[in-house]
Design a protein that fits this description.
Elements (H helix, E strand, L loop, with lengths): L2 H33 L4 H11 L3 H8 L7 H10 L7 H14 L6 H15 L2 H8 L1 H22 L4 H30 L6 H14 L3 H7 L6 H10 L7 H15 L10 H16 L8 H24 L7
Length: 320
């Protein structure tokens, strides 16, 4: 496979996963802002931090706007200059799919195009203002359908491996960011009301589609340590960081076997393997206090380095 096609496959997966994750986080926060005893700042400011947009957002909208739910939602949904907004991610996903139309299946192309037209053709904006919950649900369903079609309608060969490598690395980084920012917010809340803290941890689980799986594993009290361990280390939960990194490693070894030393990409392979080993050896009972911040920072940094390394080694573009 030529590097251009591999690059488009990789970013198609990343952008679809990013758009779906953004819709999920905004969806959950709209409910949290109504149900929990939190200020608007405590509810909405973590979103722009999770996506690494705090500085840019404050420059464009002003720092007080980080506590305005409508402003944050508009910025993360419709801002054409925000590279992590839903409309930007969906537009980029469609452009990547169009560039490799000979590789993706008809079903994948049709659903990605449908998602793009929904966001840019007026229907999405109408539903956004009329039914915010339904809008986020529609975006999530279309993104998940597109990703599902890649698995069910494409050959399970190198293009699909690159798509899912992008999906899994994006998922690992986003889950770690989400946990880090929310964990920091939870531990610095002036009010240690147990009911409020439980509501916050449950909202974090829902933002990662992990509420029901978590409750099947943990039938007792919902604690920060248990939630952190589940989202980071649970091997059977498909949105945990450990599961995503292990899946990324499997996809990458299918593309670049470890024994083929003459092939490019060896440094990235080693980094994914090392990150997978760190997560497999981390004791769940040790995820308390500063250890949560330390390990999620390592995950965010490592996934960023791995993605940049793939660009240099396989896709042939330099850093940045």
């Amino acid at each position: 496979m030529i590097s251009r096609v591999a690059d488009h496959c990789f970013w198609l997966g990343r952008y679809l996963e990013r758009a779906e994750h953004t819709a999920r986080v905004l969806h959950v926060t709209t409910t949290l802002a109504l149900d929990a005893e939190l200020s608007s700042e405590q509810s909405w400011a973590p979103i722009v931090i999770v996506f690494g947009e705090r500085e840019t957002f404050c420059e464009k909208r002003g720092e007080p706007a980080a506590g305005n739910g409508e402003t944050v939602q508009e910025y993360m949904t419709w801002d054409e200059e925000n590279f992590v907004s839903m409309v930007w991610s969906i537009r980029a996903a469609r452009e990547n799919a169009r560039s490799i139309r000979e590789v993706v299946s008809l079903e994948v192309w049709e659903i990605v195009n449908e998602l793009y037209l929904y966001m840019t053709g007026g229907e999405g904006r109408r539903e956004y203002f009329a039914n915010r919950w339904g809008f986020y649900r529609s975006v999530r369903k279309l993104c998940e359908l597109a990703l599902g079609f890649t698995r069910s309608t494409m050959l399970h060969d190198t293009p699909l491996d690159f798509i899912w490598l992008g999906v899994q690395l994006e998922r690992a980084g986003q889950t770690a960011r989400n946990l880090d920012v929310h964990h920091h917010a939870f531990t610095t809340l002036p009010d240690k009301n147990e009911i409020v803290q439980t509501a916050l941890w449950l909202s974090l689980l829902r933002s990662c589609s992990g509420f029901e799986p978590f409750m099947k594993r943990h039938r007792g009290a919902v604690t920060g340590q248990a939630v952190a361990a589940f989202l980071l280390l649970e091997p059977s939960f498909p949105r945990s960081v450990r599961h995503a990194v292990e899946e990324a490693y499997q996809c990458y070894t299918a593309i670049r076997p470890p024994a083929e030393h003459q092939l490019p990409g060896g440094r990235s392979l080693e980094r994914i393997a090392m990150l997978s080993a760190v997560l497999a050896e981390e004791p769940p009972g040790g995820l308390v206090g500063d250890r949560v911040h330390a390990i999620v920072t390592q995950i965010v940094d490592e996934t960023a380095v791995i993605c940049a390394g793939l660009g240099e080694e396989l896709f042939r573009y330099g850093p940045g």
